[in-house]
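---------- Forwarded message ----------

FYI, see the Ig-like domain-containing protein record below. Original note from H. follows.
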Amino acid sequence: PEAFFFLYIAVPCFLSYTFGFFMYSNFWCDVHSAERLQAEYLIDWYFNREHTMRYNSTVGHWTGLSRAGFITASHFNEDDHDGFLPEPLQLVNLLIPVEPAVDLAEAAGSGPDTRLLCAAYDFYPKRIRVTWHRDGQEVTSGVTLSEAMPNGDWTYQVRSYLDFGPGRQHGVSCTVEHISLREPKVYHWEPSVNRSERGFLVGGVCALLLGAVVLSSGLIKYRRWFCPRA
């Protein structure tokens, strides 16, 4: 999904209080999408309220906008030791944490055991903690946790599985901790009818429907035989 982030910093600097010289700079960072190459870093340089020069990361150098600005920009552009590292963009990204979306569901499995899946996805930054609890106590046995995998848009996803035997579904919850959350979020598992019980239930419903059909047919025949029309 397309995103936009704007960072603005103003840095004033008094060159001489006696003569009233005043210089300040504006630092801008425009992030129009999740692609780092589309992030633009700008510096506007002012002297005594005059816009003298600007740096644009897309252009890659300083541009003079006034007589004094042309001279200063030329000196800055000739300095081989002047440069801007891409690391500040990573710092900007850390300022925008994305809350994870979480799904808690029963995963497909074999045998009588139950497997639950707690999936957290579309979160940023990468670091996240997913734990299982039963009746308020953390569960470590039967837990399988995958590594946080990148989605390709700076967000991540992670999956955690919990395997347990029959009759232990109650009181199970999944807890997710992330920097985007003010406090850990707890997702409670509501156990549904298991496969064996579901089979008995379906069979019972079918038997009731068949019995109702047979009973209805018998009543109709009885009325025809023993209740002749007047």
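H. also flagged this: Residues 1-8 have pLDDT under 50 and may be disordered.
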